[in-house]
Design brief:
Helices cover 80% and strands 0% of the residues. The two termini are 32 Å apart. The radius of gyration is 17 Å and the shape is globular. It is an all-alpha fold.
Length: 251
C-alpha cells in the first residue's frame, strides 16, 4: 500500500505537467524507482501509465481542434522510424557524451523560453506543405532522441514546433501529444512482450496518470501560454539536475 501511496500522487502530478509542458517522465519514472522497481521494470511500468495518460490528453486536444490528423501521418511514421534508429544508436554511442551536450543545450533552451516572443500565438504561418515537411523532420529528429535517451522529448518538440514550424502553441501541444503517443506505444509493445510491466501497480497508476493528463489538458485550454512557460522552465531545471546527478554524483 505504501508503494501506491508514493507512486500514484507523483504519477498524477507527472500527468498534469506532461499534458501542459511535456517532461512528465522526469517525475513519474523516479517515482517507480523510489519504491524499489529495477530500472527496466520501472521504465516498462511507467510507459504503460504514461501511454494511457497521453492517450487521454491527445483525445482532449483532438476534440478542441488542436490536432490535424491527416497532416500528421508522415510525422507519425518518421517518428517511429527515428525512435528505432535512436534505440540502435544507443547501443553504439556512449550516453555520457550525449548528456554533456545536453548540459550545454539546456541553458540555451531556457533563455529561448524566457524570451517574450517565444510561444507567441502571432507567427507568420508557412504553407501547409512546408509545415507538414518541417513537422515530419522534427518528429524524426525527436524520435531519434526519444529512442536514444528520451527525457524531455515532449518539451523540446513543442518548443521546436512553435519556433521552427511556426504553428500555434495550441496546435504544437496537440501535435506533440500525437507524436509522443506513437513512440510511447511502439516502445511499450516491446516491454509488454518481454513482461516488463507490473500490471497491478501500472493499472492503478494509470488511473491517476489519466486524471492528471485530463485535468492538465483541460487547464491548458483555459490558461494558454502564460501558464506553460513557468512549467517548461521547471521541467528544464529538473532535467538539468537529473543530468548532473547522472554525470557527476551517481558515479
Amino acid at each position: 500500500m505504501l508503494d501506491y501511496l508514493i507512486v500514484c500522487p507523483l504519477v498524477f502530478l507527472a500527468g498534469f505537467v506532461d499534458a501542459v509542458a511535456g517532461g512528465g517522465g522526469l517525475i513519474s519514472l523516479p517515482a517507480y524507482m523510489i519504491v524499489g522497481l529495477n530500472p527496466i521494470d520501472a521504465i516498462g511500468t511507467n510507459k504503460f501509465s504514461a501511454s494511457c495518460g497521453t492517450f487521454v490528453a491527445t483525445m482532449r486536444y483532438s476534440r478542441c481542434g488542436y490536432i490535424r490528423w491527416r497532416e500528421l501521418v508522415p510525422a507519425i511514421i518518421l517518428a517511429l522510424i527515428g525512435s528505432w534508429i535512436g534505440a540502435r544508436l544507443a547501443l553504439l554511442v556512449d550516453n555520457d557524451i550525449f548528456k554533456i551536450v545536453m548540459l550545454i543545450i539546456l541553458p540555451i533552451t531556457a533563455i529561448f523560453v524566457l524570451n517574450k516572443r517565444t510561444l507567441s500565438k502571432y507567427r507568420s504561418p508557412y504553407a501547409v506543405s512546408k509545415t507538414m515537411t518541417i513537422i515530419a523532420l522534427l518528429a524524426f529528429m525527436m524520435g531519434v532522441y526519444d529512442g536514444f535517451y528520451g527525457p524531455g522529448t515532449g518539451t523540446f518538440l513543442m518548443l521546436m514546433l512553435v519556433g521552427v514550424a511556426h504553428i500555434s502553441l495550441e496546435r504544437a501541444v496537440g501535435t506533440t501529444k500525437v507524436i509522443n503517443l506513437s513512440t510511447n506505444l511502439a516502445s511499450l509493445s516491446v516491454y509488454l512482450v518481454h513482461g516488463k510491466v507490473l500490471f497491478p501497480l501500472a493499472l492503478v497508476a494509470a488511473v491517476f496518470g489519466i486524471a492528471g493528463n485530463f485535468i492538465g489538458a483541460r487547464y491548458f485550454t483555459k490558461k494558454g501560454a502564460g501558464f506553460v512557460k513557468p512549467l517548461i522552465i521547471i521541467v528544464l531545471a529538473m532535467f538539468f539536475v537529473k543530468l548532473c546527478q547522472e554525470l557527476f554524483i551517481l558515479k
